[in-house]
Amino acid sequence: MKSILREIRDTVQKYAEIMAEVSGVDVEVADATLFRVAGTGLFATGVGQDMSREGYTYRQVLASGRLQVIDRPGHEPICRDCPRCNHCEETIEIAMPILAGGQSIGVIGLVGFTQQQRQTILNARETYLGLVEQIASFMAAKATERIERAQQQAMLSALECAIDQMEQAALVLGEDGRITMANESARRQLEQPQLEGMKAEFTATGDRMSGKTEYRLQLGERQIFVMGQLHHLRQENSRYAIVAAFTRTREMHRNLYQMISTVGSGTLVGSSAHTERLRKEIAKIARSPSTVLILGESGTGKEVTASAIWRASDRADQQFVALNCAAIPESLLESELFGYVKGAFTGADPNGRVGKFELANKGVIFLDEIGDMPLYLQAKLLRVLQERRITRIGSNQQIPIDVRVIAATNKDLKAMMAAGKFREDLYYRLNVIPLPILPLRQRPDDIPDLARFFAQRYARRFGRARWSIPEQTMAALKAHAWPGNVRELENTVEFMVNMSDEDGVLGPDTLPRDFFSAALPAAPAAPAAPAPTPVVSLRRAEQAAIENALAFYGATTEGKRKAAKALGIGLATLYRKLEQFQ
Question: How far is it, in rounded angstroms, from Cα 499 to Cα 24?
Fold first, then answer.
């Protein structure tokens, strides 16, 4: 503020020269620091000098902000304390403050050095006072304009600095809708290195989530969904009309995914023929977009298999989102799958929520325990698989998605279809690539590899430097039935590592107390005199046992379930055996 007159020095000098020409007296202009900014006549050679030692009157005018007219310099009350009071060369002086924003930013001095000049001013006093007041107003207006321009530029510079430092994407639009400023985050999220000059149009979709409004951004030929806010600037500058601060919806999903993701290693452990065949099948189907249905008992590693498919696919750099349909209450499952907007239903998060399908866009969604999904949601899931679009609860907007679906179940979906509990059309939509996983008891060759894998994991986690599994313990592990499959084996090994001594040996004494009683059935009573019987093949004996069980329990769906339980095999295994024997 104090140096503003120096910034418009050329303008101030022109006004001083005009005033000197009209008044016939010398004119000088000093700023608030008593620096002579402009001057005519005797003052011309002193422009650019510090006049604080001689500017006694000006100092008074600057302090009071009022006009001073000194008819008899050296003899007026205001001159009493001036160092030049007794030898003043001036014959008359008019000192007018220059006011801007209520502050004195300088002073104009009309000074006469001859009696003729003094008499000229006195004869037309009011005219000269009006003139100097008008000139002071002109200078103040120019100074104010410069101040406001400087303030506006400072504000815009601060805006540019703030925008550059924002983690959010930010665009500044002019009144014509063209981008005048963009930060690095905007260039990265919009995948456009040069944004300035492009036309950008934001249209609200009507949805609000996470406390932000969703917009459809039309950028050239591209349409991009973003979440954020628009701020309208009250500036008389057509280049800075709107500031848009936003996060691309896809970017927001990726950030949310990174916060909640708990994806496992996706490593298939084991050397059995079944596991080797599974690895080969995964390698064949990984890069396909087709839906996969993983079948197997609980605890066999269905999610690990799904994760292995994702990691081997061309979507490995995108999200893998898992949802257990049996672990979420039926009333909440739909909102978990498809999300909802603000105010969608009573008790909902006021900020809305992103659904799992939307979160998995461009990646993979794993729907575990698909057999537990209620029928009404099965219909909606079928529509999503057919149309590749979802609609958030409480919204009318259809969102296109590109998601590969991997489903899994431990239930007999064919039996559920027969009972009217699972939609036949959804089954065939999911069962494009069926991938059965055998229970652990049918692939004992995997047990040593899995046991060592889990032992190493938990030994490292518990800070154990050494570990080993003796042959006696490994034989016991291989002989166990493992009704809980791989999950039970993992829990058992974790228990053993906890129970091991400093030497790290996982001996039989580290096994759970009920391990042997659960693993070994009660020994049957030995016959008194076993009679020799004809030898038949194992295949024929197995077929006969299944035929007897079905004859006893019946060939209905319920009968087959009871027969499988009596034979000690899974229902899926029974169906597979029946197909083999046919």
Answer: 109
Please report, rounded to a whole number, the percentage of residues in the chain having pLDDT higher than 70: 85
- The answer to whether residues 567 and 546 touch, using CB atoms and an 8 Å cutoff, is yes
Cα–Cα distance measured from residue 234 to residue 488, given in angstroms and rounded to the nearest whole number: 66
3-state class of 499 per DSSP?
Answer: helix
Pseudo-torsion of CA 508, 514, 520, 526, nearest 10°?
Answer: 110
- Residue 262's CB is within 10 A of a number of other CB atoms, namely 5
Instruction: Pinpoint the alpha helices (H) of 230-315.
Output: 249-260, 273-285, 302-311
**Cα torsion at 431, 436, 439, 440 (round to 10°)?**
-140
CA distance 357 to 377: 14
510: amino acid identity, one letter: T
> DSSP letters of 194-218?
--TT-BEEEEEEEEEETTEEEEEEE
CA–CA separation, 316 and 287 (whole Å): 10
Q: How far apart, in whole angstroms, are the C-alpha atoms of residue 87 and residue 440?
A: 116
Q: Is the dihedral of CA 151, 155, 160, 161 positive or negative?
A: positive
Residue ranges of the alpha helices (H) in 82-114? Answer: none
Residue ranges with strand state E in 392-483: 398-400, 404-409, 433-436
Q: Which residues contact 251 (CB under 8 A, 6 or more apart)?
A: 189
> How confident is the model over 360-408, as pLDDT tens digits?
889 999 999 999 999 999 999 999 999 999 998 888 888 899 999 999 9
Q: Residue 533 is encoded by which pair of tokens?
A: 């019987």
Longest Cα pair distance anywhere in the chain, in angstroms?
Answer: 156
Residue length of the chain: 582
H helix intervals, 399-445:
413-418, 424-430
Full-model pTM: 0.57
